Amino acid sequence: MKILMNNNKSFFRLMQICSRCLIFLLILLPITNTSCKKETTDLVKVRGIYGNPKPFWDQGLNLNDLGVNAIFVHSGSIDSSMIKRARSEGLKVFAEFATLNGKNYVDNHPEAWAINEKGEKIEAATWFMGVCPTEPGFRQYRINQLEALLLKYDLDGIWMDYVHWHAQFEDPEPILPETCFCDGCLDKFSNDIGIEIPTGTVRDKSQWIFDNHDTSWRDWRCKVIFEWTLDFKNIIKRVNPKALLGIYHCPWNDEEFNGARRRILGLDYNLLKETIDVFSPMVYHQKMGYDPEWVGENIKWFGNTLGLDNNAFPKIWPIVQAANDPGIILNEEFEAVLRGGLAGKSSGIMMFTSYAVAEDDGKIKVMKKVYKELIEKSKN
Ligand SMILES: [Zn+2]
Questions:
Q1: How far is the CA of 179 from the centre of ligand 1 (A)?
Q2: Which has the least CB within 10 A, 111, 189, 244, 363?
Q3: DSSP 155
Q4: pLDDT recorded at residue 30
Q5: 2 Cα–ligand 1 center, Å
Q6: How far is the CA of 159 from the centre of ligand 1 (A)?
Q7: How far is the CA of 113 from the centre of ligand 1 (A)?
Q8: Distance 214 CA to ligand 1 centre (A)
Q9: How far is the CA of 235 from the centre of ligand 1 (A)?
Q10: What is the band of 16 on the pLDDT scale with cuts at 50, 70, 90?
Q11: How far is the CA of 185 from the centre of ligand 1 (A)?
């Protein structure tokens, strides 16, 4: 009987301890959860739209009423009246700058036409026509455009777009050619690396490089892309030092398409994080054939890969898909990708495009809800 009572007592004490533990855990859990959430949302500084703000303004909407605090607009669409109105609504203005897309340029400047491993002029990769990134005339052409843009408008930043060797990564079946084997690129590679490429056809030369210096070739190509960002950074420092340098880029991890982000596109994050203030991975889930959940997973992976310090540059402000292309993006899906784009170490968000949101009341409501939530959370 005594033993039983003791056992009962022990059991009772055990239950008391367990329930205290449970209460403690129940109190602790929300605190831990809140502190994690706070860490993420407090960092969110940019609630953006990508594209012309006109479709909102045409409807009599003010963007600051929708929670937006930044617009990212193609450099050719910016004018003084747009900047004036954006400033009156407290918006930051960032210019998207098409960098290595030479769709019309190569028609008049055949010297800038990128060459494939067979010695042929490359074909457009759907709507994209990458130029040869080492062609000096084209480089100067873009540099002049950038200087003129920075001198004309007081911008908050330049977002480089199409910063990669010729390819198409936005489709479920990407186009990933080997370029560029023009005389200029072969000479520059040969001089920079200090090797002599044997004489022969372009096909012979490219094969010799793949067989003997493939790693150096891939590294060199990444360096060429990095040098574009370095040139841009130096011009910004000189003309408008407070402006940020951002980049829209392919979001693939190191394995996707056999490492094509670095191997074919020439994007090396370790190099780019030296010059880039803000990375904007183009996480267009539907265009690329992914589920909406992929967006958050990708952004978490990217933040860890860059090894970011939350309070320092570079930062991550992803761009997610709102446009109904190729299929319909439902409101819930749009909300899921907006939230996914804010995952991990992201501190900003925008969507492709302003038109896709402005034409759909449901998407306007989703954007406003998510952005107003971010404002509220940042106050707490
Ligand atoms: Zn070339």
A1: 7
A2: 111
A3: -
A4: 40
A5: 92
A6: 24
A7: 7
A8: 17
A9: 23
A10: low
A11: 4
User: Where do the domains of the chain lie?
Assistant: 46-98+277-375, 102-149+165-244
Q: Can you read off the two tokens belonging to residue 137? A: 């005339």
User: What global pTM score does this model have?
Assistant: 0.88
Cα 202 to middle of ligand 1, angstroms: 12
pLDDT at 24 over 70: no
Crossing angle of the two packed helices 2-42 and 361-379, in degrees rounded to 10? 110
Asked if pLDDT for residue 14 goes beyond 90, the answer is no
Q: What is the DSSP string of 272-309?
A: HTTT-SEEEEEE-TTTTT--THHHHHHHHHHHHHHT--
Chain centroid to CA 172: how far? 18
* Residue 132 CA, ligand 1 centroid: distance in Å: 4
249: enclosing H helix or E strand: strand 244-249
Tokens 């909300």 appear where?
335
Q: Which fold has domain 46-98+277-375?
A: TIM Barrel (3.20.20)
pLDDT(22) > 50 = no
Q: How much distance in Å is there from the Cα of 233 to the middle of ligand 1? A: 23
From ligand 1's centre to the CA of 72, what distance in Å?
A: 30
Q: In this predicted model, what pLDDT tens digit does every residue of 352-379 receive, in sequence order?
A: 999 999 999 999 999 999 999 999 988 8
Q: pLDDT, tens digit, for every residue of 156-198?
A: 999 999 999 999 999 999 999 999 999 999 999 999 999 999 9
How far apart are alpha carbons 90 and 17 in whole angstroms?
A: 55
d(CA 300, CA 308): 11
Q: How far, in Å, from the CA of 73 to the mean position of ligand 1?
A: 29
Q: How far is the CA of 329 from the centre of ligand 1 (A)?
A: 39
pLDDT attached to residue 190: 98
Contact 150, 243 (CB under 8 A): yes
